Amino acid sequence: MKASRSKIEKRYRSLLQKAVRRGNADLVLTTSSFLESLGSKDKNWYRSQTAIITFEECWPLGTELIFNKKFHSKVAALIQVTRATKARDATGLGYLAYAFSQGDDTVLTDTADDKAIKVVASAIRRPDDFWQWISWQKTSATEKILIDSASRFKNAGLPHDKAVIQAAAYLTATGHLPSITEGQAPDPKFPYWVVFDNHTVEGRRVLRDIARDLHIHQSQLEWTYFFFEGSLTNGEIFSKWWDGYCQWHFKKIDLAATEAHLLWDPAKVQVKDALAQESRQLKNELYRWKLANPEPIAALKRQVQLYIDHMDEIQRDQRDLF
Fold it and tell me: What are the domain boundaries of the chain?
């Protein structure tokens, strides 16, 4: 591969989360196997990212972050999120609380919901006090498992990732865990162009150029790209906090949610076309790697399914063996 290692990592890391969201388990397995082949640094990243993606995309499955030293145990947890309907309350609450902690009081609504935002924002500023308070709450056995998982990964990721994990713990301690069902079957034609969002070099360049050419605000283009494409899932339960965050973000960029498609529909064609070469390159690159490495992918798939099938038999006190 001619691309730099850092460029490869960013593309495949973005691909991994998009594949999880859209429920494409085969693509998650192939991408995971590729990331494993890059070396220990990426495997260490994968452990933390599995927890972050779980709490972001389906926070009740924080109960299933049962790992051992083997790489496939982390992939197994991520595959469960991939197959499930998504639940994003922890993400919505965490993002709103993070914005409030940074001084943005427009997230407040003068309703009882403001309490949760303020509590999680306080947790961001005083994490030790928050986790001590959480440990004092009376919870069921299942709720305690999730809170323990959140506490174990409380330092994972960037500040807004930590806020999401704190939000998951808060929601668990103060409410109940929603039931999660199996998501819809994924579209077999994965749109590789959605990988190139504003977290990638290619995506930032394209979004900047198209926003300029169409005379629209780049922040509006970035958000509609994420809202309509980047965040698309294989099914999700209604999440009050996620919906609240999205509505707040639309107001933040001065774009009516009901009219957002009028901006995105014409821009989508240009974004997709502008990323066509990068999309084909990524798809072909992964396909060639898959053809050259059928055995490790097949082995990982078997190991993951076996781990999932016997997860109830795994000793939960072994979760910290990495």
Answer: 5-86+293-315, 89-174, 197-274
